[in-house]
Predict the structure.
Amino acid sequence: MLVFAIRHPKEGVILFGAGLPEDLGGLGAKRVKGAALSPFKVEPGRDIISQLGKRGIKAEDVKWVVLPDLAPEWAGRAGSFPNATVMVSAQAWFNSKRKELESDLPDPRAFVPEERLKIVDLSKDLPYGPFEHGRDLLSDGALVVVDLEGGVAGGIGLWVNLDSGPALLAGPAAFVYDNIYDSALPDRRFVVDVSSFAWNARAMRLAQEAVPRLVIVPAHDLSTLKLSPRPDLTLAP
């Protein structure tokens, strides 16, 4: 379960993802049992707030939280950062089919403080490279939110321009390395649109070909960071 902290020289700390909720039991025992989340328990000192604190980042220091999805592994602690604007796509926030599928779970929107919510509709934005839509988050070229709907409804990724080259945080548009580089498709039960999922994988490969320094990081796989180590991409346990 990955969360990414980006230190912007002027805007402060930006998070991509917000980590698991403190109480997984609140997700509903019926659905968690036997699901991908069932083995996970947030141990004391391992939650996102504690891990950021060990690296000198207070919850108050976070200025933006970009949510690639509303699932609990991405949005569970979105309300824990009192000074942060929380960004989510309109397609995720208002998706009626998703609400039906999650009818026996607590509404994931409850994780997000609405007074600091920023809902974005990327469908009207211009393309960014091979991606259908992209938006410059801070209007300085450092961070570009890209439309990666397919793995989930309204899924978004984040293109980060670093000193040693760009990184693409794929979010749920790719679960593991094989989804991108070996065209391996996931079980249909875990994606909303297999065709869009495959299209996004192709777009990511095209981006990699155009920008060889690009490092693409899937949702649950750190192998790309180990295969292409970079001084400005550090791992924390």
Remarks:
- Strands lie at 4-8, 12-16, 62-66, 85-89, 117-120, 134-136, 143-147, 156-162, 165-171, 215-218.
- The first helix runs from residue 29 to 32.
